[in-house]
Amino acid sequence: MNRIKYFNYIKGKLVALAANIDISGKLNVLDLHTHSENFYLNFFKELFGWNLENANKIKPNVEAIDLIADTPEKVVIQVSSICSKEKIESALNKQLIKDHNDYCFKFISISKDASELRKKDYKNPHSIIFNPLNDIYDVKSILSHISSCDIDCIKKIYEFIKKELGDEININKLDSNLAAVINVLSKEKLDKVEQTPTVDDFEIDRKITFNNLDSAKYIINDYSVHHNRLDKIYSEFDKSGGNKSNSVLANIRMEYIKNIKVKNDDDLFFIIINNIQDKIIKSQNLEQITTEELELCVNILVVDAFIRCKIFKNPNNYKYATS
After folding, report:
1. For the chain, where are the E strands, in sequence order?
2. Where are the domains of the chain?
């Protein structure tokens, strides 16, 4: 297995974990949070070599600090599903932080993007070491760090996550129609857009607005131009029998249905992309392809499913095809 497949497996698992935490209304949130603390305790041991302990073992029901590493790192960490400036400043204000002001404070957002938090200034009354740009983590920043690691490090992280979160990649993989379409699409000259329009941009914009897609709209607008190209691939694909294109679209729709309880529509859109990509990576028949090419092709597949009414709700009288 190459580093791309290791990395994409890690990415899929961390994104799925964050999504499960974010929609944990029907779960025992306290238990889930405790599990996340223990997961990140061991995960950061593997990734950064920090000799962390759960702070509750040192002092029960401790506030502000979830994980702590004494010598030589001197790191204190708060693990939180709440991602806000107020949450961080509340932690920085605690007495326990005052008692550890020669440590470095780090904040891990386990379910939300924390990019905006890194740009803010914080009240730090006890002057603990804390640089928002470097000391606030989320899934995206963690993945960025992992992507720069060497193959041995990535493999070690992969092995850890496989043991913690399950679903080992089976070496006896099966062929999938998803991968078969990706193999064909990846050979297309995607920088050349066919001149004849096949979709109604106004109708697509109506559906984007109807589903409150703020971030995903950029992906949809960028890749909707490939609808006609994919339509031709599906037509050729189905000539081999079995109406295989339906199985591809049904697979994408199933990911939408399984994750439909995700409250934020943008998050749902990107979860579908990540899960479909994970399925493709696990396919026996996937040809050698770079991460960037795979992400590009998966984006095209999911956007096309969005246009074809397979995922997300349709506004009244929605007609995506031009006359």
Report:
1. 53-54, 67-69, 75-80, 104-109, 136-137
2. 3-165, 177-307
Lowest mean pLDDT across 18-27, 146-155, 231-240: 18-27
Average pLDDT over residues 41-68: 82
β-partners of residue 265 are none
Give CA–CA dist 39/47, Å, rounded: 12
Q: At 207, is the pLDDT very low, low, confident or very high (cuts 50, 70, 90)? A: very high
Rg (CA), the chain: 22
What's the pTM value of the predicted model, to 2 decimals? 0.53
| DSSP one-letter code for 238 | H
How does pLDDT run across 130-144, given as a tens digit for each residue? 999 999 999 889 999
Rounded CA-CA distance 16/127 in Å is 35
Cis before 72? omega within 30: yes
In this prediction, residue 21 carries a pLDDT of 59
> Which of 141, 101, 145 has its CA nearest to residue 124?
101
Which residue in 289, 269, 255, 291 sits closest to 218, CA to CA? 269
Residue 188 pLDDT greater than 70, yes or no: yes
List the Cα angle 293/175/159 in 5-degree steps: 70
Instruction: Name the DSSP class of 199.
Output: B
**In the chain, % of residues over pLDDT 90:** 37
Residues 182/298, Cβ–Cβ less than 8 Å? yes
CA–CA gap between residue 140 and residue 274 (Å, rounded): 13
User: Helices 265-281 & 3-22, crossing angle to 10 degrees?
Assistant: 150
**CA 174 to centroid of chain Cα atoms:** 24
3 state SS of 158: helix
